[in-house]
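Progress note, sequence design subtask.
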């Protein structure tokens, strides 16, 4: 990465600092801050013709999922050929004996769900996920079309008495497909864990058991180190009277080789009046289990609350969720609630072990921001339930502003601007994107929560889209105890270069033929904050004869008209 600390850049940063500078200065602001021939990208100055990669999606309806192409040096035109559908093929078998013996297996033809999750190996951070059901497979074989990438592939038989099987690091490329042969454990080879899931067992004065009749419950065994499913998800309680919580969990033989496994008990419906809880087990496993959720109490219905802005006025349309630990050690999360015009909402809760966390997600674009408040539940006999405190006052988002210029220095008026959060953290919901247009002077102003954001600028015509990574800091936006906001130095859009090409495919069996309606996306492959990343530079769609056009950034001077 080449970086020139020009006087212009240093002056811009100094001016930005007067109104609250970002916690981390940008590596560059415009192309003028870079050496000749380089463009200012989100990660810094770089050559617009090198370090690129392209994703081509030929059409999922014909089985042509994404294929990736590295482009060491961008040419005047760029053609791509899609090689037939990429697929994961294999077979389903089941062991006859307790041991793993390829000579002692039967073909498995019952229904199986195959799920592949992973990401591109060429484009860091570009996730890919596929799944398909196979019923009465032909001689136990299967074939599933996927995109190019590296996957974790799992098979889940519909028969809940057959534990799933998972294979990591399955690579699919145009040069070599992937073969995954599943061999499900036999009844004798699997680990059988019978037991009962209860609310609580009482020993005195008379031994008894409190069953879970408030909600349907599921149970599943997982590897706590990887999250891999070691069993099917089974129902342990129907949530109806008479349901005793009995279960027989059939677990993969792999469980016997792990230092410990976890049994995860979860209500089928979030906020249904029963907590979730994890139970840790280590081999050798007991012949029978009794899992107790603990004395988590009874649901408290329609607990009211209110959300206010920092000005004390009611905040409508905000999403509210309350979560925390309840009696017995389980965790509870309420259903999502939305505030009305008076800022009021109602939720159903369980009695907390100590205090709950109330999280407010205001609508995008408002001054009110993401807010977390500790609340307690007041539920005295003869009194209506209430929260303490009864209302939550939202903190303000940070005013963020800047200016965008066209390559000739004039304002980029009516330019589409979108802010996308890139640091979600651990919370129930992500933040919504914020969309707006620049004004006639090319200025934009929006309210953002503190954190890391990518601000995208999408012009019309012959200019390419560009983006910047920014850190929104409450500390940086405060001067002398006053919230002043953050002003980012102006950026100038790069000039655009029109690139054309043709996408072909050998799908028809008649040699290479043009592929219509294919999506072509160009990325810059780089490193951002020490992590490999892919930055989208431009996208196009092929026409009826397989031709596409895309506008990419360049340092070329404007050509005379």
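Output:
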């Amino acid at each position: 990465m080449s970086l020139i600390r020009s006087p212009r850049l240093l002056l811009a940063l100094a001016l930005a600092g007067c109104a609250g500078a970002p916690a981390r200065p940008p590596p560059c602001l415009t192309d003028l801050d870079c050496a000749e021939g380089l463009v200012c990208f989100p990660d810094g100055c770089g050559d617009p013709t090198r370090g690129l990669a392209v994703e081509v999606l030929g059409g999922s309806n014909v089985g042509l999922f994404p294929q990736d192409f590295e482009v060491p040096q961008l040419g005047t035109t760029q053609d791509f050929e899609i090689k037939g559908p990429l697929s994961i093929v294999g077979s389903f078998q089941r062991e006859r004996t307790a041991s793993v013996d390829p000579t002692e297996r039967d073909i498995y033809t019952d229904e199986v769900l195959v799920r592949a999750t992973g990401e591109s190996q060429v484009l860091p951070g570009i996730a890919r996920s596929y799944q398909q059901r196979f019923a009465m497979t032909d001689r136990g074989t299967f074939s599933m079309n996927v995109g190019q990438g590296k996957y974790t592939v799992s098979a889940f038989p519909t028969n809940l008495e057959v534990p799933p099987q998972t294979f990591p690091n399955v690579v699919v490329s145009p040069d070599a497909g992937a073969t995954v042969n599943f061999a499900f454990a036999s009844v004798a080879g699997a680990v059988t864990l019978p037991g009962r899931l209860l609310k609580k067992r009482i020993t005195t004065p008379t031994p008894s058991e409190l069953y879970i009749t408030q909600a349907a419950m599921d149970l599943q065994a997982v590897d706590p180190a990887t999250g891999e499913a070691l069993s099917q998800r089974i129902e342990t309680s129907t949530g109806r009277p008479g349901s005793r919580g009995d279960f027989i969990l059939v677990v993969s033989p792999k469980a016997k080789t792990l230092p410990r496994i976890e049994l995860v008990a979860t209500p089928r419906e979030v906020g249904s009046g029963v907590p979730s809880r994890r139970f840790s087990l280590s081999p050798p496993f007991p012949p029978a289990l009794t899992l107790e959720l603990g004395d988590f109490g009874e649901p408290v219905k329609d607990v009211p609350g209110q959300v206010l802005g920092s000005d004390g006025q009611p905040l409508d349309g905000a999403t509210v969720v309350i979560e925390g630990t309840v009696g017995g050690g389980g965790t509870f999360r309420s259903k999502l609630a939305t505030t009305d015009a008076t800022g009021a909402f109602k939720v159903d809760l369980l009695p907390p072990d100590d205090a709950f966390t109330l999280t407010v997600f205001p609508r995008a674009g408002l001054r009110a921001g993401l807010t977390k408040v500790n609340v307690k539940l007041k539920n005295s006999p003869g009194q209506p339930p209430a929260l303490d405190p009864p209302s939550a006052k939202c903190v303000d988002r940070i005013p963020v502003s800047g200016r965008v210029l066209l390559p000739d220095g004039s304002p980029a008026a009516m330019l589409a601007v979108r802010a996308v959060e890139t640091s979600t953290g651990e919370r129930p919901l992500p933040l919504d994107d914020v969309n707006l247009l620049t004004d006639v002077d090319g200025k934009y102003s929006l309210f953002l929560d503190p954190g890391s954001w990518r601000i995208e600028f999408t012009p019309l015509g012959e200019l390419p889209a560009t983006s910047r990574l920014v850190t929104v800091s409450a500390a940086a936006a405060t001067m002398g105890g006053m919230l002043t906001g953050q002003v980012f130095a102006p950026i100038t859009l790069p000039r655009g270069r029109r690139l054309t090409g043709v996408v072909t495919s050998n799908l028809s069996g008649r040699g290479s033929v043009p592929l219509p309606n294919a999506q072509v996306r160009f990325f810059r492959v780089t490193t951002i904050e020490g992590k490999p990343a892919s930055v989208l530079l431009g996208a196009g769609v092929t026409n009826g004869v397989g031709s596409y056009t895309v506008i990419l950034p360049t340092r070329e001077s404007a050509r005379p008209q």
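The chain has five domains: 7-46, 50-83+495-554, 86-184, 191-292, 300-393. Work on this subtask will continue into the next period as scheduled.
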